[in-house]
Amino acid sequence: MTRVWALVVLVLCVAAPAWAQPFYPLEVTYPKAQGTPPTGLTSNNRLFWAATSFLYRVPVAVIGGCFPYTVTFVGDAEWATLVQDEDTTEWSVEGTPTNATTDDVTVTIQVADSCGSTPQTVTWAINVVDDGTASPFRWIDGTNGLPTCNGRFRTSQGGSTTDCPYQIMEQARSMATADKFLVFYTTGTYTCATCPRSGSGTINANVQWNDVSNPTVWICRAGQTITIDQEYMQDGVNTYFFQFNSPVWIDHCNFTRGRLHALRMAVTANEPHILWNNTFSTYGPPDAAESNASVIFFQGVDNTFRVGSAVIGVTLNDFDGMPGVKSYSNADFLIAALSYSGGVTGGIDGVIAIKGDHERFTIRGSSGTNSGPLLGGDWNAANDAEVVFNNFANASDSGNTVRYNHAGASISTSNVYTARNTIRGRVLVAACSDDGPFVFEQNVIINDAGGNEVPYITYIDCTDETRITMTNNLTGDFGDDIIDAEGLLVEPFFTSDGPDSMTPKGHMRMGDGPGPPPVDNADPVNFRQLLRGL
Q: According to the model, what pLDDT value does residue 22 have?
């Protein structure tokens, strides 16, 4: 019997606002249906495959429209469910199938926004496989694998030279050219020390993991601690990064000890790269000549976009002088719930560096403290951006926390909306004579620039200050005691009494405060709604 059921989850409900028009259209950027990129995904995407008795989990990425969203998941298999992370408010589809014969399922996710946009519906089929010859999954198990194995998983490993997990990453890299997904199965540290490298012995040494046609899917098993060590500081030279020339999908893995990059990803024929709940620690310092050093590097090609990439739930810590995420050539791009701590990024690019050629991108729900910018980059040809619900701080009172549009940018930037963020440190807008508008709404901004012509905003090479607009922000100097050391509003700015005149400002959401938040500050809402008096 086929059972058809529906689970409806209302995500972050709020009182009905006076609806606004979305800044750019509501879009589910991942998952997508199988089809031709960029509107679909090719059949070898991880989304379409599940292994019996192994957790299937894929993120849901949404941009545009009016936040918050109502998410409806409808499917016809009991093993699939819709999960919302309590801390990040991001969403995923998860479950564990048990039968390759009966557990194939077609699921549908529908997302509706808060301003009446047409709901977006995505349907895809999940193929459930045992570990037979048709399975795309290959397993690596540093404890039970063997150097002669073929990557097939068996319950009882032993001396067999077939049907047992790989032992080292080089075996996986050398596997047949057919599309395969690599599963790191047991707790441990893995390296690619024996993998062939381009530029070996130089700072640009890299492992070319795949060709243009095959995807990279690395899944670190739930409940295990999997570390991929890139070996920098072994001898000061012996390090490498992974170069990917086809779509990348990496789930819940830890990376450590790199220099120039951890991951460098090429533009991939309109298909997305998905990085989800990974940790990157102990990177750098880069050489002074490494102008594009960054831990996660999206390579760029002029006027060519990869569409729908997402960096969700990524943790960055202990960096020495290099950006965390540097992005070129992305459209419909999401960075959400990124966390940064315990390091220093050098230069003006910052922890998140938006570089050339972007269309429609959202940076939301991220946090960190840095001696340089948390958000920077030259923003050349970066159009239609939402920066919302972030908690960013500079460790220096005189430092730039957010830096938009480097001075001298030769290609215009347009439509940058910054709303419901908490920003401690300076906000710099450059080259705004004909770029923008740069709109700031409902933020908490704390710095020493209150006397500027646009209060609390610093600008350079800007002959038209009207390109910067400030509406209903809470601003003040460092000594005004508006926020605490964690960026949380303090009384009387955030109080259990909740004066009716208080409109939501800053990144804080339900449960973030020192006490019960006021009713009108209880939930995150889209800045387009806030302008209309929610």
A: 66
More confident residue, 14 or 290: 290
Question: For residue 28, what is the enclosing H or E element?
Answer: strand 27-30
pLDDT digits (tens, 9 = 90+) for 72-127: 887 666 799 998 888 887 889 999 999 998 999 999 988 888 778 899 999 999 99
pLDDT band at 195 (very low <50, low <70, confident <90, very high): confident
CA dist 493 to 189, 397, 521, Å? 47, 21, 11
What pLDDT, on a 0 to 100 scale, did the predictor assign at position 255?
A: 95
pLDDT for residue 533: 31
3-state secondary structure of 50: strand
Burial of 486 (0-12, 13-18, 19+ CB in 10 A): exposed
- Chain position carrying tokens 């699939």: 80
C-alpha dihedral sign at 443, 448, 454, 458:
negative
Q: CA-CA distance, 481 to 483, in Å (whole number)?
A: 6
Please report, for residues 168, 357, 379, the alpha-carbon distance to residue 426 in angstroms, rounded to integers and kept in the order given. Answer: 47, 25, 18
What would the two tokens of residue 35 be? 């089809």
What is the set of domains in the chain, with CATH numbers? 5-129 (2.60.40.10)
Residue type, 421: N
pLDDT mean over 240-247? 87
> From CA 345, how far away is CA 369, in angstroms rounded?
10
Q: Which amino acid is at 250?
A: I
Q: Which residues contact 291 (CB under 8 A, 6 or more apart)?
A: none
Query: Per the structure block, which two tokens stand in for 360?
Result: 């429609």
pLDDT of residue 260: 82
Residue written as token pair 């960055």:
316
Considering only 150-159, 204-213, 450-459, which range has the smallest mean pLDDT? 150-159
| Mean pLDDT of all residues belonging to the chain | 80
Rounded to a whole number of angstroms, the distance between the first and last alpha carbons of the chain is 47
List the beta bridge partners of residue 80. none
Predicted local distance difference test score (pLDDT) of residue 497: 44
Strand partners, 327: 298, 354
Measured distance CA(437)–CA(441) in Å, rounded: 12
Name the amino acid, one letter, at 32.
K
Q: What is the 3-state secondary structure (H, E, C) of 456-497?
A: CCEEECCCCHHHEEEECCEEECHHHCCECCCCCECCCCCCCC
Q: Band the pLDDT of 387: cuts 50, 70, 90.
A: very high
71 closest CA partner among 101, 137, 21, 26 = 26
Name the residue among 25, 8, 35 with its Cα closest to residue 110.
8
3-state SS, residue 530: helix
Q: Kindly list the strands in the beta sheet with 352-354, ordered across the sheet, starting from the edge strand earlier in the chain.
A: 206-208, 241-244, 263-265, 296-298, 325-327, 352-354, 375-376, 400-404, 426-430, 458-460
